[in-house]
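User: If only I could read backbone structure tokens as easily as an amino acid sequence. Underneath my words sits a plain record pairing an amino acid chain with its backbone structure tokens. This is the protein in question:
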Amino acid sequence: MIKAVRCDHSSFKEVRFEAGFNVVLAERTKESNSKDSRNGLGKTTLIEIIHFCFGAGTKPDEGLRIKELEDWTFMLDLTLRGKDYTIYRNTKDYKKVKIEGDISNWPIKPDYNKNEKIFFMKTAEWSSLLGYLMFDLPVEATGEQYKPTFRSLISYFARRGVGAFHDPFKHYAQQKEFDVQVNNAYLLGLNWEYASEFQLLKDKEHTLQELKKAANQGLLAGLIGTLGDMEAERVRLEDEVSASEDQLKTFKVHPQYYSVYEEAEVLHKMIQEIKNKYAINAHILSKYEENITEEKDVSADNVKQIYEEAGIIFPEGVVKKINDTLEFHKTIVRNRKEYLKSEISRIRREIEDQKYQIENNSNKRAELLGILRTHGALEEYSRLQNRVVTLRQQLEEVKSRIRNLEAFEEGKSVLKIEKEGLLQKTHRDCQERKMQLDNARKHFNKNSENLYSEPGTLSIDIKDTGYKYKVGIKRAKSQGIGYMKVFCYDLTLIQLRAAYADMPGFLIHDSTIFDGVDERQIAKALELAASEAQSKGFQYICTLNSDVVPFNDFSEKFRNEFDRFACIKLTDSTEDGGLLGIRF
């Protein structure tokens, strides 16, 4: 039970709560005009202060950690397990809380400040301790990765922010599914550990999907990722790696590989040039030999015979000139034959020399090529080494993908068996807890029936992914009826917890929960909360704007008592009329 909210600043308006029904009223006065706002009077801030004193996380320049509230200390008077305590938390020294009260039975002992004569502890420890004091959660570290936490559980009994009222099973819009499952299971009396196991199975499924994803990525991403394809690729790469490694083992590096290569190239060019000259000489030799055989002398008798046959008789003088001419011709022919013989002899010597050069250079080049065939350059050796490394990497990649695929296939089978076993356990457990679950269903049915004359439904199903919670109210289409689902569910939770004194012992609703709700349903909801709080022994606190209080729809008795339920009235008629006593 929350007894009071206080502050060390005199402008702050202390709020004292009673057992049962309490209203924090933001009141429009006659003096205020239509431009005044009651949204800044402190209704929501009051809930923030309660969470702040319960160890809620904070951020700079947000919530209570703003410049205007720097070094403010808020106090919360409350009852925990039958004992009264006061909790202090400062907006500047926000990492710890100070505590007054009997701590002798606490499983976690606070430190003691001798100068201030007060106990204190870090907010994380305080939250853990509150989990034990309000919800009987273990304070020692447990092995469960997904488990109920005080901060999540308490947020179903003191929702804050518009997003907290959209879904009965979520206290904020981005709440993770495992947190929804585990904490609601705990509050409804289900086996929350099974909800945790369902999340662990989801984690395994995610891991398997990552394995499959890894198997289809990497160096060989273009390959079809079946296990058979991977095995075939593995064999091919193993053969290629083996062949490349053998080649690397027999590879000989010649320190002057490129010099040898260049020398072989020079010899190749020389051989080609000599062969070209050889071909030219061979052609010339052939022509010269042909010419020398065709050269013939012409006699004077032959010339005379030709002319005589033509009927021409030469005089002696002419015959002499012909003989002289023929002698001159013979001299020319003789000289030409001598020249041709000399050239033929020279060319034959050149040809022999060229043959020798071709053979000699060819032998040298063959020797160099032999060296090149049996040796390689250092760069070539390095390239071969890199090739082997690359092939090995590809082989390991394929092997890794094979392992991932094998693990994926095996994991799928194991996961399927585990999931089926968990589903069976959960179904059996729900059957064993049928009485508890029916009790929760009955509370929700009655709560919704009180508001809409027809019972709603609270259904709890077991799916492959765990518990599935759902509430239904006929005609539930408007925003207002959606908010009333949250109201009925929250009321169900505190009704179930009412058997445990001060655990937590209260339910707080911000005025947001009544936005868009028909006045008749608001009236019924408030009267139902007041009635249940009184009969079940818990505390109900709500914040309301005065102009939405449905006085005309209250029962006469409740209407007459309503003013005494107002633990504080905040007003917009003055600058200091809000909770903090200041405006900014």
The chain has two domains: 2-190+433-571, 257-375. The first strand starts at residue 2 and ends at 7.
